[in-house]
Amino acid sequence: MTGAPLTLPEELLLLALDPVRGRSLNHRKFLQYGLAGAALADLEEAGRIAVEGGDRIRVTNPLPLGDPVLDGALAALPGPDKQRRGVKAQRWVRSAGRPVQELCLRRLEERGALRRETRRVLGLFPSTCFPAGAVDLAGPARDRFAGALGAGFPDRRSRLLVALASVTDLDRALLRSREHRPVRREVKRWAREIWTVHAVERAVRQDKEAGSNAASG
């Protein structure tokens, strides 16, 4: 179970989880949106989807890839026989974020990289967390991220990862030092240029604006 390559959403999730506490280093909902966007990026790379009109997803090939995470995400999109204009990327990211996260968690549990634990908050309320398991996949993922950072994120996958980290506020944990400020500015430009990441950014912004409006009201 450990030998198959990690999907982009799995790798993003490993970067986002604190290995001891088993909780995300960024906002839970923002992470879910990021995982959905990462799944879209992998499906696009595999030739299963395309974007039309700048923000509408169309399934171009409904055949499964043999990966439970990506096949689950693909199945959640309207197939070619059911869609006319496709589904808006931002809307899908918002609705599919939690299911995609659960697919990733289950897959990483199967790989032995995570453990599902139920703890009680204040001794009363049950809460599920996912600390690191016996198989270390998070360490290599973080090493790859550090290597890509040192090389200026030279390839598509590493740029997608850091751009998704940026729009979901995960970069605050992964790129904390002041020396990374120029990189964070450059990454924001990439985020605007990659449609899958831009859809995530819009979903996050919608939540932030809703929270701001609620606070001011």
What does it look like?
- The protein has 217 residues and is mostly helical.
- It has one domain (8-211): yeast vps74-n-term truncation variant fold (Orthogonal Bundle), CATH 1.10.3630.
- 56% of the residues lie in helices and 9% in strands.
- It is built from 9 helices and 5 strands.
- It has helices at residues 8-16, 28-45, 68-75, 89-111, 138-150, 156-167, 171-174, 181-193, 195-216, and strands at 49-52, 56-59, 87-88, 117-121, 125-129.
- It has a 3-stranded antiparallel beta sheet with strand order 1-2-3. A two-stranded antiparallel sheet has the order 4-5.
- Strand 1 and strand 2 form a beta hairpin.
- The N and C termini lie far apart (50 Å).
- The mean pLDDT is 92.
What ranges have pLDDT less than 50 throughout 5 or more consecutive residues?
Answer: none
Fraction of residues in helix: 55-70%
Provide the gyration radius in Å.
17 Å
Number of strands: 5
- Main sheet attributes: strand count, strand direction, barrel closure: 3 strands, antiparallel
For this structure, the CATH topology is yeast vps74-n-term truncation variant fold
N-to-C order of helices and strands: HHEEHEHEEHHHHH
Give the second-level CATH assignment, the architecture: Orthogonal Bundle
Q: Structural class, from secondary structure content?
A: mainly alpha
Strand content: 5-15%
Give the overall shape.
globular
First-residue to last-residue Cα separation: 50 Å
Membrane topology: Peripheral membrane protein
Protein name: GPP34 family phosphoprotein
Keywords: Golgi apparatus, Lipid-binding, Membrane
Subcellular location: Golgi apparatus membrane
